[in-house]
Write a structure and sequence with these properties.
Helix content is 19%, strand content 12%. By secondary structure, it is of the alpha+beta class. The strands form 2 sheets. A two-stranded antiparallel sheet has the order 1-2. A hairpin with a 2-residue loop joins strand 1 and strand 2. The two termini are 12 Å apart.
Length: 104
C-alpha cells in the first residue's frame, strides 16, 4: 500500500464527507475549539457541523478537488487522519474510490 507520502488529499476529501459522527471533538481544549468559527460547530458542541455526512468546513468536490476551510485550526481528529490509514481507506471505499496504491 502507498505510504501516502505522494498522495494529495486535496484531490480526495472523502474523510471529511463520510460520516457526521466522525468530526468529533475529543482532545481539543476550550481554546482550540474557540478558534473554530461558531457556524462550523455542531449545535450540541460535540464536533464539527455537517450537512448530511459532509463536514461544513470542506469546500470543493469530493474525489476531484477539495480543501478544508479551517485547515490550520482543524480539530485533532482531522489532524490524526492520514493517507492510507484505516479511516482514510474506509472513507475512500464509502465513496467508491480506489485504494491509495491504485491512485497515480
Amino acid at each position: 500500500m502507498d505510504s501516502g507520502d505522494s498522495f494529495d488529499c486535496t484531490s480526495c476529501g472523502a474523510c471529511c464527507a463520510t460520516s457526521s459522527q466522525w468530526p468529533r471533538f475529543t482532545l481539543e481544549d476550550d481554546d482550540q475549539i474557540a478558534r473554530i468559527p461558531p457556524a462550523l460547530i455542531a449545535a450540541d458542541q460535540s464536533g464539527m457541523r455537517c450537512t448530511g455526512a459532509r463536514c461544513n468546513a470542506l469546500s470543493g468536490d469530493v474525489g476531484k478537488k477539495t480543501a478544508c476551510t479551517i485547515y490550520a485550526i482543524r480539530p485533532d481528529v482531522c489532524r490524526a487522519c492520514m493517507p492510507g490509514d484505516p479511516e482514510c481507506l474506509f472513507a475512500r471505499r464509502a465513496w467508491g474510490m480506489p485504494p491509495l496504491a491504485d491512485v497515480a
